[in-house]
Structures are given as C-alpha cells and as structure tokens.
Design the sequence.
C-alpha cells in the first residue's frame, strides 16, 4: 500500500497543478500510399489513416478514465507529404492536405501533422510544390499542420529555403487574415527536426520510423512550479534536485500511459517526450517556474540561466523514468500559450532578442510569437536564419513558429483561442536584412571541433 | 486488477456507508481503508480489488461519481499502476 502522502501528492498534481498527458500521437508511415494518380494516392492515405487510427481516440479516453489522468490531445503524425506526393502526376498538392484533414476529422483527432518537406540541403520537385502549396493548404483545411526542415548540423543551412519560408509565412498570414493570421500557428520551420516529436504543429513521422508507432508527450509546468515554490530560498543544488525528482514522477506517468496505449492499440511504443508544455490556463506556465526561482519577471537578466537549469534537470529526471526518450524533450516557451510569458511581454520584460537567447538552452525555439503584420518577408527570413543558426551550431533542434499578424502593430493583442491562447504583438528590429537574405545558396555546415 | 479510491471533501454522515454500499453491490473487495481530516478536508483512501467486479470500470466510476455528487465530495477511482509508477522505482 502507498502512504497517504503519496496518494494525496498524485491527486493534487492532477487536481490543482494541471498534471496531464499533453498528447498521445500515433505516427503512421504513408510511404506505401504513393501513386501516379492523385485520386489513388489520396484515397490510400485516407483509408490507411482511418484504418490505423480508428481506435486511437477511444483508447485514449479509456486510459484517461481508468487511471484518472487527463489526456488532453490525441493526434496523428504522418510521413512528410512531399515524399509521398512526389510520385503523383500533379502540380497541385492541396488534395493531399484535404485527404489528411478528412481522415483526421473521421477518426476524431484535432490535429494531424506531416504536411512537411525536408529541404535542409536542397529541394526536389515535390518539396518545392509542397512548400509553395502551404498557404493554400493551411487556409483551406482545419486540422492539418505543416513543417519544413531548412537546416541541419550536418548539412548546414539552406538559405534559399529560409528566404522562401519568410514569404510563405507572410502568405499564410494573409490567407488567414480574418483569423489573425492563424494559418501561421500551424506552420513550423525547423533546424534539426526530430523524427519522433509528438507535439504539434511540428510533428511528422520521420523516414527512419517504423510502420506505425505511439509517442507520448507529457506536461506539468504547474507541478514543477509548485515544487519550486515549496523550496523557498534553497540553494541551486537543491533546486535542481527537486526539479529532477518532480520530472521523474511526471515522466513515469507518461511512460505508463505510453505503454498502456501501445499495448491496447497493438502498436510499438516509440518514445516519451519529456517536455514541459505550458497552456494558457492559470498555473500551467513555464514562465512562472522561472519566476518562482527568484526572477521578478520572466525575461529579466538571469532568465537564460534559470531556464538552462530547468531544462537540464527536467531531462535528467525524465531520462531515468522512461525506457525510451525522444522528440523535443525540454521546456517549451511559446509566448501565446503561456500566461506568464504574455504578462512578461506586456510588462516590457521580455523581448524577441531575449527569447532568442533563451532558445539556446531550451528545447524548441521562437514559438507562437506575433509580430507586426507589415514586417517584411526578408526580416522574417532573417529571424528564421538567426534561430536555425543557433540550432545548427549547437547541435540541437530549433524551430520558428511566428505570426506576422495582418493589420496589427506592436502592443496589439491577437486572439487565437483555446490552447493557442492570445499573443501580444512584439517589436521587431526595424533595420533591413534584405541584401543578406537575397544572396541565396547555402551556409556551410559548421565545424564540429575547435569549439569555443 | 487493483485500484485506489479517494474521497475528498467536507465531512458528513454517511460518506463511507454510501461508497462502500456501491462497492458491495458491484462485488468489489476492499483491501485497505483509511480515513482522516487533512487541512480541514475529509480524506478517505481505499485500496480495492476489482478482479471479481460485476460491472466494468467505467460503470463503477460513474456510480461512484454520482454518489459523490450527492454527498458533495469528490470521488476518484484510479488504477493502482499510476501510483506505483510515480512512487516506486
């Protein structure tokens, strides 16, 4: 039997501190769906997703009920569509996006990721068609998420793709102007994209993955914030140790749910993603953890160090709790989805440049950031270039999910609703990078020795 | 299969009678039970065995939830594994 304190601790994590499983994501390979005929390919895609994911939502709900742990999202990630669509005789890939959308609606998942292309070293014909179709695809579907990998540590940075993505992001915002540019919230630009990430909008089923797999993303910033608060003014060693222990407990629940879901769906268990994923709900904020550590506001000097400690301790605790760890694994710092981040921006404590510094030590990148609608495409490309350079040089994943909100100026708010929250429009450096971005070509892969 | 039932809320007469009545009707065996007042909140924790249960876990969950709502307390039924995984290596 467990002690009373152990049972109450678990119950309180769920009741008061928003502990939940953020997502059970089923990865499905669509490599065998390619066909010269668009109709045949999209038909196969629809059928395969519906067949494999038929019981995904119900299984998630059953586990939620039996174990008393909320499972917020059930989602699907598929093979990057550029690889599947390339064989078809067409220049229009939007039917593929629509097939994904219909399949997602049919099985009852709120998002499906993988309308993606991997172009870190260059474009194939299919990659180019897919990238050019992203604004249309995201404006005309509800559940489809898109991502483009433009750089890796081994290949360097495809600056042609970086230039294109600045323009594509602007087009996505324009095409969804009446929703504040919401299309951009479903589009991620990556460096070193992980192949097994369960979190949207950047999830896709990588080419090294098996036929079908279950990946689980845990959450729990509120649990960590409470544990840190209870410590008072303890020293950093104690702080790191407490975060580690808490991350261990959170991740063990993720591991349990992942194994249970995999067994019930008769699909191999892939990985647990050890991320602290905030939501706009009160008490579910990563910024609050940093503030509990002793910063007046997230964004103050010291924030990068606090985040580095947090991110590392979460990984150390989580790694021992799970048999297989992968995905993004770390702390997420999306601005619109974190009440503490939004407050920090509104208070003038947190700027784009500080966020960029924070991404050097945590799991993702510039995430869910609204900028003025009249920001030039070349400036967006330059923001992407800076962020992927951090990932490429530091051998880590970085991502950019940025929304040039149409018609909005610095200081305005953009409402997205639900888990996407609301984003304060942040200032962008007004000086131009036009000449730099328009050079074209690739930035070579960085040296992996002589590191200083 | 074992599960942990927790009841949290304002103390009143008949909480244990109501919850254990349902368990007896559904043929659920109580292995351990403890009750206390923690920070002014009535807290009851039970370890139960569901292996000879007459209904499925969802039905039991709904019955307990309904009884809890009538008593003005929160009742949770959770499979034991969630506590094992979190607190035992």
Sequence:
């Amino acid at each position: 039997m467990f002690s009373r304190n152990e049972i109450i601790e678990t119950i309180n994590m769920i009741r008061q501190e928003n502990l939940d499983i953020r997502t059970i994501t089923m990865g499905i390979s669509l490599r065998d769906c390619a066909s010269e005929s668009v109709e045949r390919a999209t038909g196969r895609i629809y059928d395969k997703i519906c067949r494999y994911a038929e019981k995904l939502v119900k299984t998630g709900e059953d586990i939620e009920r039996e174990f008393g742990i909320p499972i917020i999202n059930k989602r699907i990630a598929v093979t990057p569509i550029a690889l599947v669509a390339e064989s078809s005789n067409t220049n229009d890939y939007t039917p593929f996006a629509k097939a994904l959308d219909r399949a997602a609606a049919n099985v009852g998942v709120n998002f499906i990721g993988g309308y993606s292309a991997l172009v870190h070293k260059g474009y194939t014909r299919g990659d180019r068609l897919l990238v050019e179709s992203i604004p249309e695809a995201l404006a005309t579907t509800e559940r489809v998420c898109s991502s483009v990998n433009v750089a890796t540590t081994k290949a360097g940075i495809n600056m042609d793709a970086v230039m294109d993505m600045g323009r594509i992001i602007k087009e996505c915002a324009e095409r969804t102007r009446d929703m504040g540019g919401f299309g951009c919230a479903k589009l991620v630009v990556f460096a070193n994209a992980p192949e097994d990430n369960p979190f949207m909008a950047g999830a896709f089923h990588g080419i090294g993955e098996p036929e079908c797999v279950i990946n689980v993303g845990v959450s729990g910033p509120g649990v960590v914030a409470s544990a840190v608060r209870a410590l008072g003014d303890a020293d950093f060693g104690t702080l790191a140790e407490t975060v580690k222990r808490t991350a261990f407990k959170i991740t063990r629940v993720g591991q349990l749910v992942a194994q249970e879901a995999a067994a019930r769906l008769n699909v191999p268990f892939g990985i647990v993603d050890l991320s602290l994923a905030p939501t706009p709900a009160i008490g579910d904020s990563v910024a609050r953890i940093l503030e509990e550590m002793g910063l007046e506001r997230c964004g103050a000097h010291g924030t990068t160090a606090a985040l580095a400690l947090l991110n590392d301790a979460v990984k150390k605790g989580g790694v021992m709790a799970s048999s297989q760890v992968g995905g993004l694994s770390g702390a997420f710092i999306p601005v619109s989805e974190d009440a503490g981040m939004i407050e920090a921006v509104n208070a003038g404590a947190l700027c784009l440049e500080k966020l960029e510094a924070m991404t050097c030590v945590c799991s993702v990148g510039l995430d869910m950031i609204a900028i003025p609608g009249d920001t030039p495409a070349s400036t967006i490309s330059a923001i992407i270039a800076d962020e992927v350079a951090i990932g490429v040089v530091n051998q880590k994943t970085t991502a950019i999910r940025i929304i040039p909100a149409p018609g909005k100026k610095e200081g305005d708010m953009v409402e997205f609703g639900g888990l996407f929250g609301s984003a304060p429009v942040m200032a962008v450096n007004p000086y131009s990078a036009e000449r730099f971005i328009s050079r074209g070509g690739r930035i070579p892969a960085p040296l992996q020795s002589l590191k200083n | 299969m074992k599960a942990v039932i927790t009841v949290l809320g304002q103390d009143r007469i008949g909480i244990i009678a109501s919850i254990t009545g349902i368990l007896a009707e559904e043929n659920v065996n109580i292995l351990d039970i403890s009750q206390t007042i923690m920070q002014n909140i009535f807290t009851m924790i039970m370890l139960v065995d569901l292996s000879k249960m007459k209904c499925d876990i969802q039905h039991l969950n709904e019955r307990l939830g309904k009884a809890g709502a009538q008593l003005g307390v929160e009742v949770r039924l959770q499979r034991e594994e969630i506590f094992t995984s979190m607190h035992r290596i």
In short: Chain A has 15 helices and 13 strands.
